[in-house]
């Protein structure tokens, strides 16, 4: 019975460095050097150690091994959500580019509340990442203090400010709103509905559009705020709310392509045709926008390039290379398609 208990105990125990040393026929110190500082160990010895690692199933403690070099090769990437593909292309590009530079990405989903972001980032930093990517520029004072105290490189994405925490690559949501407003005013429209997600960046785009639309004589503007994250269902219900009192609109401005897709579906369900009876515009040029029927007019952001540049800015700073620009404005483009 005692032997059985000992066997079960050994089976449940995680392999240790000493187990690897025994399997390789080497000292624990030599194994530690081979794993943590392979430049000072002969290739044949490294091969013996790696074979023993595979046999035992040992998982090296990268944090402990990184204490000497102060590197963990881990990059934390923080985004609000990935249940639609607003951020997916950027996250994928960051991960791919970091892998080319020898880093691993730790992805965290924090939602849209500053409190959640602060709590999760504080936990992430206990893992000693070499750097961190944050979405947006609006963070709690507690998070800013935590980041500054951590003293690691930071890249903020998907927004624009001349005073980032460290480095930034993004675009102006205010200017996007202005561009949408001017586009519709140039067509002579005066009646506008806006379906806007509740997150801060969407609200900035909405305000930018309204500031321009209000300059048109006799303009009628009605807005609906829907919960984040946006999806087709809330896009449909948003248009339903806008039209519940029989109002007519020239154009519907949506703060995402998913909201625009839902608005188009609701318009068609009500016997309307887009764009004949109603123009609809979205944001982000998501991968379905060009293939929707009608294809969705939208604002295009180069999401892949943003991710690639963010990853390289971070890796360059970690590795001591000079950063040409700490703030990069990627800009945006208006993509005119069938819906508007």
From TrEMBL:
What is the top-level taxon of the source organism?
Bacteria
SUPFAM superfamilies per the UniProt record, alphabetical = lambda repressor-like DNA-binding domains, Periplasmic binding protein-like I
- What are the record keywords, sorted? DNA-binding, Transcription, Transcription regulation
- InterPro entries for the chain: Cro/C1-type_HTH, HTH_LacI, LacI/GalR-like_sensor, Lambda_DNA-bd_dom_sf, Peripla_BP_I
- Domain named HTH cro/C1-type is located at 16-59
Location of the HTH lacI-type domain = 15-69
Its Gene Ontology molecular function terms? Answer: DNA-binding transcription factor activity; transcription cis-regulatory region binding
Matching PANTHER family: LACI-RELATED TRANSCRIPTIONAL REPRESSOR, TRANSCRIPTIONAL REGULATOR
Name the record gives this protein: GntR family transcriptional regulator
User: What organism does the UniProt record list as the source?
Assistant: Rouxiella badensis
């Amino acid at each position: 019975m005692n032997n059985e208990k000992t066997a079960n105990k050994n089976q449940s125990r995680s392999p240790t460095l000493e187990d690897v040393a025994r399997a390789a026929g080497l000292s624990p110190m030599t194994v530690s050097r081979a794993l943590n500082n392979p430049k000072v160990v002969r290739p044949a010895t490294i091969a013996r150690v790696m074979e023993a690692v595979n046999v035992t199933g040992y998982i090296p403690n990268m944090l402990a091994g990184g204490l000497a070099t102060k590197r963990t090769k881990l990059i934390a990437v923080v985004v609000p959500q990935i249940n639609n593909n607003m951020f997916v292309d950027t996250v994928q590009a960051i991960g791919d580019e970091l892998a080319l530079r020898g880093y691993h990405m730790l992805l965290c989903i924090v939602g849209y509340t500053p409190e959640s972001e602060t709590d999760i980032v504080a936990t992430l930093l206990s893992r000693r990442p070499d750097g961190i990517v944050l979405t947006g520029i609006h963070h709690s004072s507690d998070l800013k203090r935590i980041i500054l105290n951590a003293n690691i490189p930071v890249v903020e994405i998907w927004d624009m400010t001349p005073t980032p925490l460290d480095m930034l690559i993004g675009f102006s949501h205010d200017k996007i709103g202005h561009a949408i407003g001017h586009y519709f005013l140039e067509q002579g429209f005066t009646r506008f509905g806006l379906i806007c997600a509740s997150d801060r960046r969407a609200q900035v785009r909405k305000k930018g559009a309204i500031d321009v639309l209000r300059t048109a004589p006799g303009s009628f503007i009605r807005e609906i705020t829907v919960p984040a994250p946006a999806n087709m269902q809330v896009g449909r219900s948003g248009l339903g709310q806008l039209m519940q009192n029989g109002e007519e609109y020239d154009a519907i401005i949506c703060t995402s392509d998913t909201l625009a897709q839902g608005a188009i579906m609701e318009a068609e369900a009500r016997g309307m045709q887009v764009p004949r009876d109603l123009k609809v515009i979205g944001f982000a040029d998501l991968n379905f926008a060009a293939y929707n029927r009608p294809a969705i007019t939208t604002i295009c952001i180069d999401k892949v390039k943003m991710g690639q540049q963010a990853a390289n800015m971070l890796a360059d700073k970690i590795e001591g290379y000079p950063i040409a620009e700490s703030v990069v404005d990627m800009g945006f483009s208006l993509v005119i398609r069938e819906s508007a």
